[in-house]
Amino acid sequence: MRRYALGIVVLALTLVAPSSAVAQGTGDVLNEAPLIPIPQDMTYEEYQDMNRRISTGLMRSAIPVPGMMHFYAGEPTTGKWLLATGLAGVAAIIAGAALWEDGEFADTDFDVLTINAGDNGKERRYEKIPVSLEGETPKYRLRELQRDGGAGGPLVALGVITIAGSMIYDFLHGIQVIETKRDRVRFKYGKRLKLQAAARTGTPSVALSYAF
User: Fold this and answer.
1) Nearest-angstrom CA–CA distance, 94 and 160
2) Is 171 in a helix, a strand, or coil?
3) Cβ pair 96, 153 in contact under 8 A
4) How far apart are CA 204 and CA 121, in angstroms?
5) Bridge partners of 143?
6) Going residue by residue through the chain (212 aa), what tens digit of pLDDT does each one get?
7) Residues 105, 125 contacting (CB under 8 angstroms)
8) Which residue of 1, 26, 30, 95 lies most exposed, with the fewest beta carbons within 10 A?
């Protein structure tokens, strides 16, 4: 049953983790921002906010760890909360998988064949379903009886939901945070830009430039 729980975790991470190939298609994250004049009163945090790229955030969020997008967005507190939530989900899955082995076997009206009786981890039970009769000897078909899971089932489900929810929130809200911070800085300093025109000597032309 632990194998099933592990498979559920892997499936959940696969579904919610964005593909790095998709992230690469949204932009070249290796290109540096061009060096431009910076307003004197612009802080380093604002400069970082202005130059954060969603494509880089998508690349980082391809790592199946909750909080990666918020760490990149400059929100370490939220990132730590999401990371802690993801770890709590993993702990719930591990605990649920352990409790699953202690669940009771399902009831049946047929005779039961027990293998490794008394060994909680290896005990298996099969119900003997009559399928034919040869003379006075009945023939049976064995069907394995599953444990009901006890409290392990809800714990595993809770863990999967917790991990998936934290990663989805990190992905969607992280993109929103990056866009909001970037737009706020660009709007603040963009209003101060002034277009300047100057005539060039020699050839008849006009040079346009921006100044704060």
Assistant:
1) 11
2) helix
3) yes
4) 89
5) 127
6) 555 555 555 555 554 444 444 444 444 445 565 667 788 888 999 988 888 888 888 888 888 899 999 999 999 999 999 999 999 999 999 988 877 766 677 778 888 888 887 776 677 888 888 888 887 788 888 888 877 766 677 888 899 999 999 999 999 999 999 999 999 998 988 887 765 544 555 555 544 455 55
7) yes
8) 30
β-strand pairing of 205-211 with 194-200: antiparallel
Q: Beta strand 111-115 with 124-134: parallel, antiparallel or unpaired?
A: antiparallel
Distance CA 85, CA 87 (A): 5
Cα 66 to Cα 23, 154, 186: the distances in Å are 17, 22, 28
**Identity of the amino acid at 105:** F
| Residue 183 main-chain phi, psi, to 5 deg | -65, -35
Amino acid letter, 129: I
Q: Give the residue carrying structure tokens 């099969």.
A: 126
Q: Cα separations (Å) of 9 from 84, 92, 100, 171?
A: 16, 11, 16, 18
Give the C-alpha separation, 103 to 109, whole Å.
19
> Is 96 within 8 Å of 151 (Cβ atoms)?
yes
This prediction has a pTM of 0.63
Alpha carbon 37 to chain centroid distance?
38
